[in-house]
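User: My instructor asked us to take a sequence, write out its structure as tokens, and then describe one feature of it. I'm not sure where to start. Here is the sequence I was given:
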Amino acid sequence: MARNRALVPEAKEALEKFKMEAASEVGVNLNPGYNGDLTARQAGSVGGQMVKKMIESYENSIKTK
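Assistant: Let's start with the prediction itself. The structure tokens for your sequence are:
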């Protein structure tokens, strides 16, 4: 059974903001709430951009240590 909820509920707002920023960077128009009309390619590009930014952030944190 799939569950689509944040492990840290307090982070939900920050995750939404992060998702919207990633979507705008790749040119996908997201609406607050339901976005079931997106193609798999659009949704994948948003998720891919989010992962890319998280990896960059982690790599930068390692460099500064």
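For the description part of your assignment, you could build on this observation: The chain is about 60% helix and 0% strand. Try explaining in your own words what that tells you about the chain.
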